[in-house]
Amino acid sequence: MAFPHLPSSLALKTTCRSALTPVPITVSSRPIQNPAKFTNWVLDFRSKSLNFAFSGALALGLCLPGVRVADAKVGVNKPELLPKEFTTVIDVAGFLSDGQEKRLAEEISEIEKDTGFKLRVLAQNYPDTPGLAIRDFWQVDDRTVVFVADPNFGNILNFNVGASVDLDIPRSFWSRLAGKYGNMFYWKEKGEDASIEAAVMAISSCLREPVGPNNCSEVN
């Protein structure tokens, strides 16, 4: 699927890195007449911005750290690579054992039950990936974190973060997480599976922390 031509301003502002970020919002210095209405507008705007970036990243197969969406790889959409039954962990690359997949699925289920946030894991070797097809399969929304593990681009850990998650979790957490468990030295020494498991447990710990100025300040 060819990526559509984007206006240069949008292409520059929509970036794809360890955590997808929305288009920056510039706020006027004038007093806000209706704070509640403004807050709703910001949330809606952030949601649409992240949704656009997320769609682009999945169409391209994965999120490339530090690379603009418009400059990334050719689009992938292979629903035939999806499992026949619903699962929160899809390993088309074969990085995980059956036991590891089961443990991760159980942890993800507990995360969703305890926090309301949805974590989804896709392990792939681009271009062998379901790509955009996972969006409907997982019913991705603003409370979803899609974790794409792919070793082909150096850092194995990539994240697409929903707008509601982005409000609670500092964006620096995702880059620190990728730096700790996703770097090439780590996964080449310990294995792709170790990187994936460590990342899921770190995300689980972060999502359970009370929201505050210092939440998720450490990557466990």
Task: Summarize the structure in words.
- The protein is 44% helix and 11% strand.
- The chain has helices at residues 8-13, 35-59, 98-115, 133-138, 163-168, 171-181, 184-190, 192-208; strands spanning 15-16, 67-68, 89-91, 118-123, 144-149, 157-161.
- A 4-stranded mixed β-sheet has the order 3-4-5-6, sandwiched between helices.
- Residues 1-30 and 41-72 have low confidence and may be disordered.
Cα-to-Cα separation, first versus last residue: 38 Å
Helix-strand pattern, N to C?
Answer: HEHEEHEHEEHHHH
Most strands sheet: 4 strands, mixed
Helix fraction by DSSP (H/I, runs of at least 4): 40-55%
**Sequence of strands across the biggest β-sheet:** 3-4-5-6
pLDDT averaged over residues: 76
- The poorly predicted ranges are 1-30, 41-72
Silhouette: globular
Number of strands: 6
Report the portion of residues in β strands: 5-15%
Structural class by SSE content: alpha/beta
Whole-number radius of gyration? 17 Å
How many helical elements?
Answer: 8
Task: Give the structure's gist in a few sentences.
With 220 residues, the chain is an alpha/beta fold.
For this entry, give a set of tags.
four-stranded mixed β-sheet; alpha/beta; 220 residues; two-stranded antiparallel ribbon; 11% strand; 8 helices; globular
Secondary structure layout:
Elements: H1 8-13, E1 15-16, H2 35-59, E2 67-68, E3 89-91, H3 98-115, E4 118-123, H4 133-138, E5 144-149, E6 157-161, H5 163-168, H6 171-181, H7 184-190, H8 192-208
Parallel strand pairs: 3-4, 4-5
Antiparallel strand pairs: 1-2, 5-6
Helix pairs in contact: 3-8, 7-8
